[in-house]
Amino acid sequence: MQEELTQNCLPRIRSYYSRFSDKEKRIADYIISNPEKIIHSTISQVAEDLHIADATVFRFCKHIGFKGYQAMKISLASELVSPIVDIHETIQEGDSEKEVAQKVFRSNIRTLEESLQVLDEGKFKKAVQALLKARKIEFYGNGGSGFVAMDAHHKFLRTGLQTVAYNDSHMQISSVSQLTKDDVVVLISHSGTNKDLLEVLEVAQRNHVTTIGITHLAKSPLSKKVHIPLYTVSEETEFRSEALASRIAQLSIVDALYVNVMMQRKEDSARSIKKMREAISSMKI
Q1: Which domain holds residue 33?
Q2: C-alpha–C-alpha distance, residues 56 and 27, integer Å
Q3: Is residue 1 part of a domain?
Q4: DSSP label at residue 18
Q5: How far apart are CA 235 and CA 88, in angstroms?
Q6: Average pLDDT in the 175-203 region?
Q7: CA–CA distance, 106 with 100 (Å, rounded to integer)
């Protein structure tokens, strides 16, 4: 089922870009370069400009999550009314250390802004409620996403909820086999195609465990199979992969979930933090 989206046409195109065919990249480049022209053009005019069939443009619109060309135009028009400042700049060989740092920061800001745009309020609320009701929460991620899983565990310890994180596939599948419908697993994967993590997801499904996925916006096996998908948007550059750029968005989604849970468990969380601080203080000289 296609999701109708507003004010995220360009971020979605950028997010999918590396997965497009050559023909789709031509359409994507045309839209990114001529957004105002697109909203005043018919599908036939766009197809004629690109020397392709109308059906090819229509399929492109479907691929990025819209019902058709008209729906994409409406979303694009909304985006142009409140335009996102294009702060992305390509890092050049001659850039100074400070200039590289500035561009990295700006890229991170853009990743966060665009990931916030595609955050589905309904799905996010479901994720928060699932975490609040969980008997136990487990965070799984491999490679770079494993560090995000560990960060999530470190934060959620303060909520007073039972939580753990694993970044080893054998530990993940062993642990998830012991979980039940009363538990929640948060699976973190930029690509959403990690074979080991998908096997863990299958075991979770067999045990009726509630699953939350934090993954890249482009459709993937993980995003299709988890109960609650939460998306990040990031763009690949010459010196930084989109997976690396997405990590800050993954961390921010975890932070947002954590703060929501803390707010709704205010008294329990306060007691938990007090206990942790008392325990830690005994370790200080």
Answers
A1: 9-81
A2: 9
A3: no
A4: G
A5: 9
A6: 96
A7: 10
**Pairwise CA distance, residues 284 & 280, whole Å:** 7
The pLDDT tens digits for 157-170 are: 989 899 999 999 99
pLDDT tens string 190-236: 889 999 999 999 999 999 999 999 998 767 899 999 999 999 887 65
Q: Are 118 and 214 in contact (CB under 8 A)?
A: no
Say yes or no: 150 and 255 in one domain.
yes
* Pair 249, 128 in one domain: yes
Q: What is the DSSP string of 196-207?
A: HHHHHHHHHHHT
CATH of the domain at 187: 3.40.50.10490
Q: Evaluate whether 117 touches 6 at the Cβ level (below 8 Å).
A: no
Q: How many domains does the chain have?
A: 2
- Domain endpoint, select from 27, 52, 81: 81
Same domain as 176, residue 257: yes
**Does residue 77 sit in the same domain as residue 126?**
no
E-strand stretches of 77-145: 137-141
Q: Enumerate residues 6+ apart whose C-beta is below 8 A from 63.
A: 16, 24
3: which DSSP letter? P
In sequence order, which residues have a C-beta less than 8 Å from that of residue 165 and are 6 or more positions away?
A: 138, 139, 140, 141, 149, 150, 152, 153
CA terminus-to-terminus distance, the chain: 59
What tokens appear for 97 in the block? 């250390």
Tokens of 226: 């988890």
Token pair in block for residue 51: 């020397």
